[in-house]
Amino acid sequence: MLLLKPSSQNALSHLAKSFTSFALAIRNASSPQKAFFLYSKMHRQGASFDSFSILFTLKSCTQLRNLAINRHLHAHILKLGFTSHVYIATSLLHAYVITSFFDACQLFDEMPDRNSVTWNTMITGFSRLGDVEKAKLVFDEMPVRDVASWSAMIAAYMNSGKYESGLTLFRGMVMEEGSKPDQVTLGSILSGCTHMGSLGLLIGKSVHGFVAKNAWKLNVELGTILVDMYTKCGSLKNACQVFELMPERNVMSWTSLICGMAQHGYSMEALSLFEMMQKDGVRPNELTFTGVLSACVNAGLVEEGGKFFNMIEECGLELGIQHYGCLVDLFGKAGLVEEAYGVIKRMKLEPNVVVWSSFLWACKEHKRLDMAERVMETIMKMVKPENDGGVYSLICDLYVLGEKWDEAERVRKLMVDQNVRKFRGSSFVRS
Description:
By secondary structure, the chain is mostly helical. The protein has helices spanning 9-27, 32-44, 51-61, 67-80, 86-99, 101-110, 116-129, 132-141, 147-159, 163-175, 183-193, 197-213, 220-232, 236-245, 251-263, 267-279, 286-299, 302-314, 321-333, 337-346, 353-365, 369-372, 376-382, 389-401, 405-417.
């Protein structure tokens, strides 16, 4: 039965058909703009609004991330008298969390009724702002918590780098009666494991054991998360075992394993996986090609790397800065410094510091000061003392290599005057 704003009983039967048709049309609208147009049309025609037409409009228009539209809908909802409708208020709250958290907090405080989704939305909102302490206060104030509440709070800890707090909360969830973790919960824990080294691998294996013990189906999402965790923790054997057991794989499953193999130096295995992926009919994405190009860099496969680079646009994908960076690395490490410079000059994107660092490293490694001098002034204008200390050091080393002592001393003095911090070098292959 439709939840209708109070109106005369005589009008109900006459308008019932239009209510249903408008709500259905808004739900099936081809775009958020079309949904909002239909909502406005209802208003112009004087049709009474039901909860479904409002909910479908809010859900659709949230995608626009437009604060003005959210406030317009909020004002209309107030006028219609639907503010006490918990589902509508929660849907509006979600829209505000994305566009204006200040408005979201005001609405939350004014809501007469709240359900678990309302509270969970606020936890997620504070988490997005990086305010984990306030997210925890909301979590602690909840009268009743569901699995999504625990998952949201665990994700807040993991996303902010507070892995120990996240794991402590996870243990509390497991111990609490009636709060069995779901796939979303485990996804947050496993993503945190990738940042915790050997301890993360130990915890990840324990979570994997929980999955096996409870006879969870190894679907594509869960399998991919496990493969990603194992590769990033350096356990390629376990990653391959999970990958082989997966009944279904998508592009992210293949990409996780390909990138993991490339990152840990198993270049030929990464390229073999890419070939298998193509034979399996899975279309690669931009990240897949980053892994493939990284494998070519590590193995010194110049010709193959060029071929894969050209395949990116052939597959209808966009060339990214990471792809250009890998190609510069590839040519540079092979001693093809002029070719690497040519790649940079032909880039459709503005080269960043990492690309230029790769080029300078190649110039230093192959003693091509003449090539480095073409770009040094350009690079010096874009480097930042607080982040790019390694680039300053690299330029200084190049001047020393060319016995240009005055220039080397000028850069050293600049480093001291600007309090440049030294960091180890970066590479697209390792990142």
